[in-house]
Design brief:
- The complex is a heterodimer of chains A (532) and B (264).
- Chain A is elongated, with a radius of gyration of 27 Å.
- Chain A has three domains: 5-248, MetI-like (MetI-like fold, Orthogonal Bundle); 254-352 and 456-530, D-Maltodextrin-Binding Protein, domain 2, CATH 3.40.190.10; 354-445, Osmoprotection protein (prox), domain 2 (D-Maltodextrin-Binding Protein, domain 2), CATH 3.40.190.120.
- In chain A, helix 20 runs antiparallel to helix 21.
- Chain A contains 22 helices and ten strands.
- Chain A has 532 residues and is α/β, with parallel strands linked by helices.
- Residues 523-532 of chain A have low confidence and may be disordered.
- Chain B is α/β, with parallel strands linked by helices and 264 residues long.
- Chain B has a domain at 93-159.
- Chain B has helices at residues 48-55, 78-83, 100-104, 106-110, 115-128, 133-136, 146-158, 176-193, 204-210, 228-233, 238-258; strands at 6-15, 25-33, 37-41, 63-68, 71-72, 85-88, 164-168, 196-200, 213-218, 221-226.
- Chain B has a six-stranded mixed β-sheet with strand order 6-7-8-3-9-10, sandwiched between helices.
- Chain B starts with 5 loop residues before the first strand and ends in a 6-residue tail after the last helix.
- The chains are: A alpha/beta (532), B alpha/beta (264).
- At the A-B interface, helix 5 and helix 6 of A face helix 2 and helix 4 of B.
Amino acid sequence: MTFDPRIADAVARLPDYLGSHVLVSLTALALGIAVSFPLALASARRRALRAILLAATSIVQTIPGLALLALFYPLLLGVSALSERTLGTGFSALGFIPAVLALTLYSMLPVLRNTITGLTGIDPAVNEAALGVGMTRGQSLMMVELPLAVPVIMAGIRTAAVWVIGTATLSTPIGQTSLGNYIFSGLQTQNWVFVLFGCVAAAVLAIVVDQLLALVESGTRNRKRARVAAGGIGLGLVLLGALVPTFSRPGATTIIGSKPFGEQYVLAALIQQRLQAAGLAAARRDGLGSSVILSALAAGEIDIYVDYSGTIWANAMHRTAAASPDEVLEGVTGWLEQQHGIKLLGKLGFENAYALAMPRHRAEALGTSSIDELARYASRLSIAGDYEFFARPEWAAIRDSYHLAFREQRQMQAEFMYTAVAAGDIDVIAAYTSDARIAQYDLVVLADPKHAIPPYDAILLVSPRRATDRALLDALHPLVGAIDVTLMREANLRGTGSAGASPEAAARWLWSEIERMGTNKRSSRSQVDAGR
Amino acid sequence: MTQAATVIRFEGISKVFAGGHHPALDRVSLAVGKGEFLALVGASGSGKTTLLRLINRLTEPSSGSVRVEGADVREVDPVKLRRGIGYVFQGIGLFPHMTVAENIAITPKLLGWDNLRTATRIDEMLDLVRLDRAHHRNRFPHELSGGERQRVGVARALAAQPGIILMDEPFGALDPPTRDVLQQDYRRLHDELGLTTVMITHDTLEAVLLADRILVLQAGRVVADGPPHALLTSEQSAYVRDLMQMPRRQAERLQTLMDGRPAP
């Protein structure tokens, strides 16, 4: 019997992902309890304070988990910059701290609400008796009210634990490694084994922690010290098991970022392999939100990532005028250097542009080969783009240049967009030009005669902190100009979908191709690198 | 009882609750002597419970003063005061998460008694209220019958050797045979231990049979105050006459039956 190699891959990543997940969620839970418990005690006898606290935590609960996590990044970036200016030391606004803070807020409502409910729900006759036998308020709380409220309070803590462990899977886009890494990268690379593995692992963790807390609770209620101890030791072991791989991991000196889509995973894996081959320790922060990643690089949270010239041109520099690829590249290089001290090491050699695409037979039936011609039929057609496309300035530019008005606009997971357009559920999609699925699904890319879409050269960016690091730059240099679009499309195809496909395997294949071509074309340069 | 030392004294006590239209207590003055068994009777809302709670400062008066064993209660730490006064609560008020022994030991524990003295006291108390040491000691309140629970309530009130016992309808929820036994048992304890007892009851017959003295409250005022015999026989207001009518009529009917004559 043979196993799907993706399972072995998933298992190999488990200690790292699970460890980080346990650490971030249990820290948040402990912090949430430490904050909400005293608040609940203080407000149990104060009606106004209670109302305010419960309303505030309920509002936090209505914010979607992903948004709450994302909001903490810019907030902390500001706080960090301020503390750097005033106190001279900043802190990492990416990853652990924002994830813990957001999850802490998330865990507060059940703990707060159940503690208050438990304390206010006690039979008034029992409270009266506590005072009547001569207890002080404090003694009444410690000897009578809290012991009686324990089951309700523990139920709140258990709810909070399950919520936090579930929501922690969403901390991947802000740079916190978690079981969500399986889910996010699995979704992007159509690795359903990963998605399922991540879900099951998170569910199992939630159930284990919940049951250990239940053991502590039943032990407290029935006065079985052994049960309380067993539950406590169990939780301790879970935490310890999580910490061992986290702390035994060698301190990574170079951190490679990637945005949440397949090509980025392949390129991040390629960079990591190159750095490791050069003897440099390297770790990855995969699946960072595209609005987070540039500021993370500027702040030195990550050291390297691949972006696209047009993205920075339109989104960060807010340029709308049409420009040639060279003008864009020159503008972007200068702007990154002056504004952030970021070094643009060079172009990788391919472009991954947004482009409007539709199935070949549909395009032929309509007689359209450019966006210009498409505009006439747009009112009868539907268009789909990824989650950010319709909010990006590039879409505004295309729409306004060609006066496009589609019947319907839909946002969807990029992976599903291609199958939807091939199946005829959607007429036009905003595709990526380096995506092999354009050929795979026999789509045609519509021409952009007005140059509304800027050029999107893939560019290698290095953080200000490492901009002059010779060893790092030398290790990366062989990648500059080495990947053309055909090669990238093939690598993207190899990185996703089928069994055995993984970004790492695709990256290894890509490097073997680069080396092969290098020895053919640029033998001298490659010799120097190989000999290092 | 005038020759006995006064243990509890109310002087011109009035109590008005926030939002209340009428005072819960209206200029009440009262002296309870050592060893007295005083029953408080009156309709719901007549001020019985307020009067009782003023004694251990679970309620503060709006005006007037309360003195317990000579000291103005306002000058005594309420927590210390309550530890020195036994309280048997309406609806018992045992702590549901504590065993019988732990419930009984609560006030001694608060007073900082050592373990040996407390353990000895628990056994004494179980004997006193006629519960079985081995069988009841480690039970939880929900495992007991109503009568057993009330015995534990009395034992808890007596555990720290108080001189004063306050009882708020202690036997109201019990079935008649159990109630009768407990009433007799408590009266015996009252006499043996030389306690001063103030008991609220809705049951005039219970007041008549158990107490040395009955205080009738109506709308926050004392409308009658005297030994049961006096309240049953002497000239009284219409309200008190009606209140005392019931036990008297029951007694007369019983007498008729026992004499073998047909009921009137």
